[in-house]
Amino acid sequence: MRLFTLIIISSYILSCQEKVKESDGDITLLEYQKEVLAKNKPGSEYIFKMYPDKGYLEYSLVYLGKTTTAKSKAFKFINCIAYSGLLKDSRRANSSIYIFNEINELIGQYQLGPIWSLPKSLDNNNLVFDFNNEYCNQKTLISYLDSIPKKIFIPCTENGGDVYIFSRGK
């Protein structure tokens, strides 16, 4: 029974992470994002590795899903972690949330910073930030029912949090 459970869990984990795709650096982040949107698999992680002449770059993209506003506009969300550095072992990471419209055109993004600050999921037109670590221990829902908020505040503790500004376009 234990072996069967282990096989089921392993299969689930492997199905959530799509194949790793490598490139020589000619493909843009936007092209990778459109590829992820076309697959339309919420919760799946896609890894894209690029080896340009001047350093190492890797993107981890997770399509969170789609929300619909009260006026029937659709927004699609992708979490993005960008790992970069001169060498694979010396890379640094930063994270962003990218928002697209119903025809997969980029609307804009929130630059977040640390990778633990990414939202976990979408739930009923709300972006869910649910933290339980040494830096943050709060759950926050950001509504997209009316429109895209120009800034969002994500409380981390009872005493503070972070503000993120929405930037239109790339």
Write the layout of secondary structure elements.
Blueprint: H1 2-16, E1 17-23, H2 29-39, E2 45-50, E3 56-68, E4 74-85, E5 92-100, E6 106-113, E7 121-123, E8 126-130, E9 139-143, E10 151-157, E11 160-168
Parallel strand pairs: 1-2
Antiparallel strand pairs: 2-3, 3-4, 4-5, 5-6, 6-11, 7-8, 8-9, 10-11
- What letter string, H or E per element, gives the SSE order? HEHEEEEEEEEEE
Structural class: alpha+beta
Please state the CA-atom Rg, rounded to the nearest Å: 17 Å
In the sheet with the most strands, the strands line up as 1-2-3-4-5-6-11-10
Let me know the largest β-sheet.
Answer: 8 strands, mixed
Kindly state the number of beta strands.
11
Question: What share of residues is helical?
Answer: 10-25%
Low-confidence stretches: 1-17
Residue share in β-strands = over 45%
Mean of pLDDT: 83
- Distance separating the two termini: 50 Å
Q: What's the shape?
A: globular
Total number of helices: 2
Characterization of this structure:
The chain has 170 residues and is of the alpha+beta class. The chain is built from two helices and eleven strands; from the N terminus they run αβαββββββββββ. The protein has a domain at 2-116. The protein has helices at residues 2-16, 29-39; strands spanning 17-23, 45-50, 56-68, 74-85, 92-100, 106-113, 121-123, 126-130, 139-143, 151-157, 160-168. It starts with a helix and ends with a strand.
